[in-house]
Amino acid sequence: MTIPHKAGGTRSERKHEAILDAAAALFLQHGYLGTSMDEVASRAAVSKQTVYAQFTSKDALFEAMVRRLTRAAGDKVQVGLGSPPDGMSLAAHLIGYAARQLEVVRTPALMQLRRLIIAEATRFPDLGRALYENGPGRAIAGLADVFAEWSAKGLLETPDPLAAASFFNWLIMGEPVNRAMMLGDEAVPDGAALERHAGEAVRIFMAAFAPAPSPD
Amino acid sequence: MTIPHKAGGTRSERKHEAILDAAAALFLQHGYLGTSMDEVASRAAVSKQTVYAQFTSKDALFEAMVRRLTRAAGDKVQVGLGSPPDGMSLAAHLIGYAARQLEVVRTPALMQLRRLIIAEATRFPDLGRALYENGPGRAIAGLADVFAEWSAKGLLETPDPLAAASFFNWLIMGEPVNRAMMLGDEAVPDGAALERHAGEAVRIFMAAFAPAPSPD
User: Fold this and answer.
1) How many domains are contained in chain A?
2) Does residue A195 sit at the B interface (CB-CB below 8 Å)?
3) Is any Cβ of chain B less than 8 angstroms from the Cβ of A33?
4) Are residues A95 and A183 part of one domain?
5) Cβ pair A201:B167 closer than 8 A
6) ipTM of the modeled complex
7) Is A188 on the interface with B (CB under 8 A)?
8) Are A102 and B164 in contact (CB under 8 A)?
């Protein structure tokens, strides 16, 4: 490969993106083994040599594609939840957070990415870790921080903020995500049902972690 | 094919089982697309014609293999939990149940089956449904029955027993199953950690669903 001059650099970047877009579409639909580099090249309207020049191997392309989508998905995860605005109860604040988290399960491409990574967790263990760290791991760590802060202020009682955050996360996400994984995207409840679900999950959490009323 | 006589029938059944065993080993390790009928035949020590005579297609073999493992897994799921024995608290009874459910996540073949079905949920939607119905669906329905019964006796307060059962299930299974899906079997906590997890999950559940103390 020659070092690209300016205009070529831009074209090369455009090709790079086109290849990643094509790879995302094909891998998400057909899986790792069901997708060939020829198909990626054809869909991206570049030569196969260009694909290999940019990504060296199918494994490398798969990894680059998954990491790009995972980062994008991670950016949707709420971190740094912060304290409730004046006049809003902690429970109402948490319900709002839960509702925003649940939007993720209503994004079919993200559910398909999750299926794909689970499918390939043995072949690509690093990708499973990247998805976990950018997804539930990041959400749970962010929650644990605010739970610790709220506990210090006497608003919650979470002696183990990380464990409490994990239970909170799976109260919210457990059923919808796992139903979607096994039953497909049509099994995700509609918006009103997800709102009721979020409300009940927060009620359960607050019953277990709200500070005990003072004895006097 | 000729209709088998007695001795042939037995041999045919043995071959049938050998093919299913070979299919399970190969599909679980290499996935649907990564496994060929030639490899199944070779591993089962039968001819490829025999494989096709018994299962007609790779799809049919895959389905038969998954359904056999799913049924076997479903038999491990606790149903008809029953009431706690005399002198045992409801919480202690639920912790015992939770600990038994968690054994499932410590069975690598079952976690791999789950990964495989999630991977192929789009290609084989019926299999996702079968796994869901034999797995979480069955556990949750069984729990909902006893929660309704206990609520009628005043031991619990679950106005929606099915929703309560689903939250209970995912309090227990959410973190360990989803970590195992993405991070691999090594990410499953050890026995002592799973016991603490079960205890805390039941504490959260009881905080939310134990009957309110009577006002007098």
Assistant:
1) 2
2) no
3) yes
4) yes
5) yes
6) 0.85
7) no
8) no
